[in-house]
Amino acid sequence: MSDQTSRDQINIVAISCSPFGGGKTRTAIEAVLSGAAAAGARTTLIELGEDPGSPPDYEAAVEAIRAADGIAFGSPMYRATYTQQFKALTEAIPRTPDDAPLAGRAVTTVATAGSDHHMLGMSGMRDILVDFFAAHLVSPGLFVSPAGFDGPALQAPVQKRAETLGLGLVELATAIRSSSGLARATPNA
Fold this sequence. Notes:
single chain, Rossmann fold, oxidoreductase, oxidoreductase activity
C-alpha cells in the first residue's frame, strides 16, 4: 500500500468500555469493525477493561480518538446506564476551543445488556457524544440483549446489523472528510 493510499484510508477505532476484557460487548464491537473493514477502513479495537489488574489507559484511548476518522463506543449496560469506564473516558477527552478531538467526528454506539429493559441507556451515551462533544452520530447504534446471541456469537441478523453500522460509520467519516461544514462542528459553550 502506498503512503498516499494509507493516508486516504479511513481509520475506524472501536473502544470497549466494558470493565472486563472480551465478552459480549467485544463480540458486538468486533462485528461493527468487520463491517468497517469490509468497506476498506483500517480498524483498531481498544479494550479499556482488558487487564483488570491495571487501570485503563485512557490517555492511549484519547490518542487513538485523535487519529481516528470514526469511533464506535461500546459499553455493557448496567441498570440502564453505561459503565464507569465510558464515563471516565469521556471525562478524559478534551473539549476546549483549541483541543476537541471528538468534534466533527463520526461516532456510533454499541451496547449489550442482560435484558431489553436497558436499551434506553444508550441515549445517555449518544447525548454526551453529540450534544456535549459535537460528534456526528450514525444512528440508531447497536443494542444487543441475550436474545441477540447464539452462544458467544451474534445471531446472523444482529451480525448483519452490526456490519451495516460499521459500513455507515465509514460512509459518514468519508462524507465528513469531504464536507466544508461537517468537520468544523464545535461543542456548545
